[in-house]
Design goal:
The chain has 232 residues and is of the alpha/beta class. The chain has one domain: 3-Layer(aba) Sandwich (Rossmann fold), CATH 3.40.50.1820. It has a seven-stranded mixed beta sheet, sandwiched between helices. The longest helix is centred in the last third of the chain and has 19 residues.
Length: 232
């Protein structure tokens, strides 16, 4: 579907027979560096099955993947830019739909997890970063409730869970931050067979079923608490 004038996205809606007729709360699902592939669509579909109107924007929509990759990472490092505007557009698109309650969360993986933290103070009701790089602490001022998941074997993000927990606690932000000791980076993402999967395994990335399912249970419980209650 169209998210903005130049941004495409994948929308998954709950089945009314299972989740009721709606309207439903929304979730913006943010991809990792590899882009919006089959794994992200499966995760987006799973949120719909759980009763959320889920939208995964393609942050690489603007003019080719390599060009967009550079611009998107610049926005992640700077904490501002077109990518964050596109994420906010995705939130607005969901919130304004008649089949959405107007209460929208954001979830992201790796690069997308970093953006989920940056966007946590921009109109979302809850944020769920998975192994997202930490922004400057000031970016967390005024953040919505955060449920975050990290792997204990994720060397590039060693200590990130503790630092995030400390920063959120200092600001009085409701949070659930958990580190899974045996899990590595990317533990909730299933890479397709191929070169990327082999490289990921060599450098310590990889899917961990137990950690992924525990994180999924925590995220759904957190979203149920913060998105399914009355507006505040």
């Amino acid at each position: 579907m169209q998210v903005g004038s130049e941004v495409l996205g994948y929308l998954a809606a709950p089945h009314a027979a299972v989740s009721g007729p709606g309207p439903w709360p929304g979730v913006v699902v943010l991809h990792d560096i590899t882009g919006p592939g089959a794994d992200l669509r499966a995760i987006t579909d799973r949120f719909a099955t759980a009763g959320y109107l889920a939208l995964a924007p393609d942050l690489y929509s603007r003019g080719g993947r390599l060009r967009c990759l550079k611009a998107v990472f610049e926005a992640l490092r700077a904490g501002q830019g077109q990518a964050l505007a596109d994420i906010d557009s995705a939130r607005a698109v969901l919130a304004q739909r008649p089949d959405c309650t107007g209460q929208v969360a954001v979830v992201g993986f790796c690069m997308g997890g970093g953006f989920a933290l940056l966007a946590a103070s921009s109109g979302f009701r809850a944020a769920a970063p998975y192994y997202g790089p930490l922004p400057a602490e000031s970016a967390l001022d005024g953040a919505c409730p955060v449920v975050a998941s990290y792997g204990g074997r994720d060397r590039p993000l060693a200590g990130a869970a503790t630092r995030l927990r400390t920063a959120l606690s200092a600001r009085g932000i409701v949070h659930d931050v958990k580190e899974y000791p045996g899990a590595a980076h990317g533990f909730a993402n299933r890479l397709l067979p191929g070169p990327l999967n082999r490289i990921g395994c060599v450098i310590g990335f990889g899917y961990d079923h137990d950690a992924a399912e525990d994180a999924w249970t925590r995220v759904l419980a957190f979203f149920a608490e913060h998105l399914r209650g009355p507006e505040t």
